[in-house]
Every structure is written in C-alpha cells, then in structure tokens.
Amino acid sequence: MTAVLDEVDELLDDIGFEPDSSVLTYRQAQVLALRERDISQADIAAELGTSRANVSSIEASARENLEKARETVAFAEALRAPVRVRVPEGTDLYDVPNQVYEACDEAGVKVDYTAPDLMKAVSDAAGSAITGREVSTPLIVGVTSDGMVRVRHQE
User: Fold this and answer.
1) Could you tell me one molecular function GO term of this UniProt entry (predicted)?
2) Does residue 107 contact residue 82 with C-beta atoms inside 8 Å?
3) Three-state helix/strand/coil letters over the chain
4) What are phi and psi of 48, to 5 degrees?
5) CB neighbours (10 Å) of residue 19?
6) Nearest CA to 85 among 61, 105, 65, 112?
7) What is the pLDDT of residues 77-111, one digit of tens each?
8) What's the CA gap between 99 and 118, in Å, rounded?
9) Could you tell me which residues are beta bridge partners of residue 149?
C-alpha cells in the first residue's frame, strides 16, 4: 500500500496540487485520490496511521468543500451570464428550450444546443429539481456569452 500512497503523492505533485490555494487540504486530496482508486477507508486509515472514522470524516469534509467550490463557481458564472431565465416551479421541461432561445435571441447570445440537448443539460444539472417532465423547484438557467448553459436552483 505504501507504493500506492507514494503514487498518489507523486500524482498530486505532477498535477500541481497546491493546498495553500485549494479548498482542500493535502490530506483531503490524498484521501480523495486513494478513494478514487477504490481503496477502502479502513486500508487508508491503516496506511496513514489513523482511524477509519477519521478517514471518513476527512473524505466527507473534502467532498463538502468540493461541492461548495462548484457552487461558488456556478454562482460566479451566473453573475457574468448575460442571459438569465427564471423557470418557475410547475414548468414543463419541454417549454424550457423556447424560453432560453427567446432570451438568448433578445440578448444576441448564441446557444449551441438543440432543444433535446438543452432539455437534457437542464435536467442533468437540475437533478432533483426536475420530477418527470416538471420543474419541481424554481430554476435559473444562465447562458454565458460563449453559449455555455449553467443551471442553479432558485432559493
């Protein structure tokens, strides 16, 4: 297992992981990299000289930090997006592409998605905010000036 830990440390070095500028600590990055290799928390704990519960806590904190970072990036992109379409609860997913296309036309922004691809992108990004074909939690669909679609749950 020490070889795997050395391999992970080398990987983190090769990809330029910098804990000082990351939302992850070095230990969190190590644990995530080891878990991505399907190594059990118990085996990681044994290698790191700690408990499985501590490895579990490190992994949970790392995943939470990554989700917060993703949300922060999505928020920053939404601020810059010239097109923002509010999609209310109860909207049929099949109606979303036309709403987005109309808003993009008004703003002079080109969106490179067919209607089915746009519905899939919105549905995938919205996750549990879509039930069947219905928007069950209000959404904001943003389109950046380069045509990238970003979806946020409206709180």
Assistant:
1) DNA-binding transcription factor activity
2) yes
3) CHHHHHHHHHHHHHCCCCHHHCCCCHHHHHHHHHHHCCCCHHHHHHHHCCCHHHHHHHHHHHHHHHHHHHHHHHHHHHHHCCEEEEECCCCEHHHHHHHHHHHHHHHCCCCCCCHHHHHHHHHHHHHHHEECCEECCCEEEEECCCCCEEEEECC
4) -90, -5
5) 13
6) 105
7) 777 889 999 999 999 999 999 999 999 999 999 98
8) 11
9) 143
Cα 151 from Cα 86, distance rounded (Å): 10
- Domain ranges for the chain: 3-76, 81-153
The structure tokens 């999505």 sit at 74
Residue 118 CB partners (closer than 8 Å, separation 6+): 96, 97, 100, 111, 149
Residues forming a β-bridge with 59: none
Structure token digits, residue 99: 């709403």
- Determine the CATH number of domain 3-76: 1.10.10
pTM of this prediction exceeds 0.85: no
Rounded (10°) angle between helices 26-36 and 52-80:
100
